[in-house]
């Protein structure tokens, strides 16, 4: 029988990262966007103190880049000092955005911060009331080890009362993420670690509960492709080693996506009312929401909705309704009407684009040739076998849709 303990898993703080593809929404919200990553980390610090956790585990990418601003270091050190006063330890593996050989600290870290070595797997003891409750394992990334399987080099002690590994890497294939520290689910299950705390993939997910393999996701969405609540997990480990996880939202600003079927909208007044309804369904008392709207279907407003100036007018009218400190702001209305999907009725440049891209796709073999010619394919190594025909076809269809959408005048780029 061990001692029960509690910890926070978070990662991908990207302190100092700017919001992308956003226009000004007024002085108050603009200032909140500048501070968003710092506010989200402070929310984690406050949560850790409230929940009386034993430790905060950070799974990489504390900073957004090699040349992170001094201000980002200041906020990180300040938060860690607050945790130190409460005797809460902080354990960090460095990620691909802030690899070990790029950390040039201008400010000394407090004694409660422990950074895993990039030269070898390192072990720390997690203590509660002076007694070891878990062995913590991890290895930071540097530029030379970014594409190595970091997880497979972790081998816990049999004497551990509980074992936790911190990894910044990719389990399997994740669309939109480089294969940093690639590993497989099968290889993780072959290693006697009881809780794998993963970073790098920004989508929150529990891949397995035997053993636990957990992505906490990032703590603050940075663009509308990262919609939904962002935050961290509070993890309770019982005296018998059973695990319970609970997600807490920490983002200062949340991105959201909603769909409107034009077949259900008969007039401009109904459209404005529908936009108002979507906003009210999302409104929160203590957070601002940045909302993307996707128009689908066909109806009386279909032709009007294709005009980017009309959509911009709808957005402006919607913004005029927001007067409080926290609001719901529409940042884009995308028109995805079925009539643009066929070359014979796509106008001008869009028609030429559709013809050109479709001429490249003469079957799954052609897609495979294009993908295998990419330098990224070589970095996959043996993991390339996990890339299926269905994944290639899905990637092609997404690229085709995104190209049409951008040519229509959409302001957002992924």
Could you write a compact summary of the structure shown?
This protein has 414 residues and is an alpha/beta fold. The chain is 30% helix and 22% strand.
Question: Notable features of this structure?
Answer:
Purple Acid Phosphatase, chain A, domain 2; 414 residues; six-stranded mixed sheet; globular; 3 domains; alpha/beta
What does this structure look like?
By secondary structure, the chain is α/β, with parallel strands linked by helices. The chain folds into 3 domains: 5-249, Purple Acid Phosphatase, chain A, domain 2, CATH 3.60.21.10; 254-336, no CATH class; 358-414, no CATH class. 30% of the residues lie in helices and 22% in strands. It has 10 helices and 15 strands. It has helices spanning 27-51, 70-85, 185-189, 268-282, 302-305, 308-320, 348-360, 364-372, 375-380, 389-407; strands at residues 5-10, 55-58, 89-92, 113-115, 122-128, 131-138, 163-168, 195-199, 205-209, 212-215, 231-237, 243-249, 253-261, 288-296, 328-335. The strands form 3 sheets. Strands 4-3-2-1-11-12 form a 6-stranded mixed beta sheet, covered by helices on one side. A hairpin with a 2-residue loop joins strand 9 and strand 10. Helix 1 (27-51) packs parallel to helix 2, helix 7 runs antiparallel to helix 10 (389-407) and helix 8 (364-372) packs across helix 10. The protein is globular, with a radius of gyration of 24 Å.
